[in-house]
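Exercise: predict the fold of this chain.
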Amino acid sequence: YHAVIVDEAQDLSPVQLHLVSKLVEPSAGDMRGLTLLADPAQSIYYRGISWKEAGIEIRGRRTRVLTKNFRNTQPILEAAASILERCEDLKEENEFIAPESTDRLGPRPRLVFYQSEIGKLEFIRDTILRLCQRHEFRLGDIAILSRFKYDKTIKRKPLNELAAFLNEHDIPNTFYKNPQFDIFENNVKLITMHSAKGLEFPVVFLMGLEDYAMPFISSPETVEEDTRRDRKLLYVSMTRASEWLFMLCPKQRYSPFIRDDLDRSKVHVMEVEAVVS
């Protein structure tokens, strides 16, 4: 090919990237026909590419740094960015580029603490109805993201339980990877955090922010890597919201990212009994 464009390049391994580079015709000359779009802050699967290992020089006049953020309101962007301030690998590689807000105003993200699962579900239901009635959102504008499809720690399927609850209260919903899924259909979207990458919605609820789930440590040998991965995963999940963001946390056992890293001045803290006004 004369030109190859690769999106989400931060998640390619050096071998994959080297393979992609071979798709460019030699006549294009020293990779001039290869365009890579990458954000290291959104590398949510593993450490990701090493440009030098892949034999690609990304610095210099052929590099363009895009900093303007057009998706998120300023409050959402500032809260999400605070999660990454302790992401050491981005600092070490000098690869974190602080996004510039378009200065689009909006409500501060809501940090919602709940005492029980039913309290969490009722808050989601009531807030969805309030947003649609008072703020003129459609059900199709709303997505609910969960850390897991199946939570092995508590042996439950949080999205399935949520779907059943919403169905009981006549709130149409659909799973993202359902064969009949239609992004434009007017129903609430239920998605895992990993599957939400690349998507955006006016309203986003985040579930699965328990201390054992975010970060989820798969083994004692992978603590550092798992923590780094899930810190970025939370950042990606928060920035799926373009207008309203609700972060749902159990009152007693919630993520250290929320406890230690999130800038509380950038969010509005709520108890589960509260509703959107």
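Check your answer against the key: The first helix runs from residue 14 to 21.
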